[in-house]
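Friendly challenge for the regulars: who can give me the structure tokens for this chain first? No prize, just bragging rights.
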Amino acid sequence: MPRGQGSSVSTREKPKVDQAVDSNEENHKHRRGAYLLLGLLIVFLHGSWSVYQIQFGNLPLPLDAKQAGKRGFSEASALEHVKYLTSLGPHPVGSDSLDLAVQYVYAVAEKIKKTAHWEVDVQLELFHTDIGANRLSKGLFKGKTLLYSDLKHVLLRVVPKYMPEAEENLILVSSHIDTVSTTEGAGDCSSCVGVMLELARGVAQWAHGFKSGVLFLFNTGEEEGLDGAHSFITQHHWRNSVRFAIDLEAMGISGKSTLFQGTDHWALESFAAVAKYPSAQIASQDVFHSGAIKSATDFQIYQEVAGLPGLDFAYTDTTSVYHTKNDKMKLLKPGSLQHNGDNMLAFLLHSAASQNFLKNAQEQKKENTEKNKAVFFDILGKYMVVYPQRLATMFHNSIILQSLLIWGTSLLMGGRPGLVSFGISCLSIILMLIFSICLPVVVAFILPHICPFPVPYVANPWLIIGLFGSPALLGAFIGQHIGFILLKRHLRHVYSRTKPNLPHNTREYVIDLEAERWIFKSGFIQWLIVLILGTYFKVGSSYIALVWLVSPAFAYGFLEATLSPVRLPKQLKVVTLVLGLVAPVVSSAGLAVRMADVVVGSVVRVDRNPGGLPDWLGNVIVAVAISVVVCFMFVYLLSYVHISGDKRTLGLLLCIFFGCSLALVSSGIVPAFTEDVARPVNVVHVVDTTGIDDGNREPLSYISLFSNTPGKLTKELVDLGDDEFFCGRNMTTDFVTFTTKYGCWSYKESSSGWSKSEVPVLLVESDSVTDGARQTVISVDTKSSTRWSLGINKQEIDDFTVQVDSEKLVPLGGKSEVDGWHTIQFAGGKKSPTKFQLTLYWSNSATQTSRSEAKEAADVPLLVKLRTDVNRVTPKVAEVLEKLPRWCAPFGKSTSPYTLAFLTGLRVNI
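First reply, four minutes later:
Bragging rights claimed.
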């Protein structure tokens, strides 16, 4: 029987197409319009921003002393402490202002002791440390030995009077009083000290019911390499009674104090159970442990040296002001200290009064720490989820197995056409990532050439939405649309064989719908791959991939999937997208925005060796981060655009948004930096005697300008034309801990503000060979400097010791290296020693060149190199600082020199 309207084939086909559209008019009628797609995009973006604001921007109302009561936490009272500490200005180790800060904290602690509950014993101590050596092996401390001396800490121990066993079971709450030399440290970490003092006042009214004591450690020396925590944990007699450690830190200023490191699920569960405003993200812990963020906290000491369980908290708002002059009181958001204090007070009252908490802390060292690891995160800052890592792995493996079974069964039923469609879907993911990354990266390369600054968006981070977000979204769509076109081509071939009787218009429309569904399902593949990798490498934040896989898949299966193999596809429902994305957006959109903000804020200090990185690198880091977020979060939403008749309109809107953002930054209408969000520019008066071997020549003295932010210093020198600065890479400055590869130098009026008596001395006391082993003894005199860095050439030297008087401070063995050097960093108070004895043990393959050859060879490497710091602003430095734009600010770290630095060294052939 010929095929026609009365044939059996036609009769069978008609029900299959019952909901399909049979005409061009109907097809266009059902296409999604630009307003719908734009509305979905706005809802998605607005929803993500709302989640961020609720999760990270919603702070509690600050309380004054009367509202908080005798046993509560008052932000107003804590701010009084912050106000005084910041009024002292920068107070680094060894400064008079730090002595005043320590005296203030001690005086407040004395008042707390006097007003404590009559059944509570408060013990107060001003701890003066001995000289010590801090040799950590992980993270930033590889290849380093950190020495310290003459540090002062305030310790406040609160225990119930009639429970002596509480003295042997202490919960440590720790933060640091000292700041870097460039900031008053309102956020880092005067805010933490203020919170701790107010916490101590409150705890002193509750401790009569405790099973454990609470020890508040206000240390100094944290900014110089965690020396304060190390000196306590290795020297103080209370250290052996500590069972649990809490560290309070800041990597920005204000906002919520977020739990970003935790060791054990029982401690995390205890915090989750009582925290009034929980803020916790294991994703931050994953990033921190990966080394992407070049920083460390005292928590590393408590874990690595003391082996203590604990929790680590930090402020992360406005990370661009970290360690600059802009870390000041006026940027502290109301409610920030209240948030931290309320959470900490509730947790301390719970944990110190709990016998189970104490038992868990005591048994922690006996157990396998891997078993105690947990996944933790908060939902909208209202609830905190905690579950063991082992459970997460089991659950993830179950989901992965089920997903693979479903996909395997589906592909088996679909045969070769289904397998090819699956392959093209995977290709669409790759193309989406490639195009989404390539377009913003091109913008990243262009920005340094058309903008006054290579990173023109730091002061206004919202600009990255237009600069990188728009091209990333456009690139993601282009890559995905290429996959969509390839899918249509494949499906057209399949449908021409399997359903030849379908009308042409209907077939084309059905092919569109089928391709759209495959593109939507490519999101499942993408997140499944991420989940598999995250589970395999035991990444705690893999739960994000789980939510982005399960929720949309469930919505799709519930609203879209059909068990009929002959039914033609329908258009994806908008409600499927909305329902599928609710859980993922709520669980991770706020975190994505916060991570983007932290990345942007970190760009100002990305170049650890100024000039060592290309100008475009900071932009590329931001561009790639934004592209990855766009690809993974927009994968489902973009699949709804491909059969729209208004693709060009949406593309044009993205281009316009990008163009406007580019015009704003290239024209300078929107400033790259402001007085509150400044570009770090360090000004150092350098006195260099490294190349002077005979002692008759004058030291080389100059003013050095350099920045950790990529880019030249052209704008900064506008008002410094009379100071004879020249810039470039023709004279690098080796500051031992880092090298300035691009900067500016001026020799004008650089002879004043220092004296030759301050130039450090490296003197060879002996150089002998015994049984074929060469040994050299060098005396090191740092003169008036109690902060210095010494580099030892490990390509020549096998091992070394450091001795102070008759005490061997650094013994033989255990010396790691980075780029062929081991660095010793010393920081101490005014009474610290300034004379040391360095004994070098040469390696068998060390360079053996005569002195005459050494004099002829200008490029003979250094054996040791020394930088000493003096915290003094010389007249010329003061003049330069005054002339620099207001949007410039010095940046300080433990590796940064003070404003006056002396350099010297010894050649290999001494």
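DSSP finds 24 helices and 28 strands in the chain. The two ends are 105 Å apart (CA to CA). Your move, everyone else.
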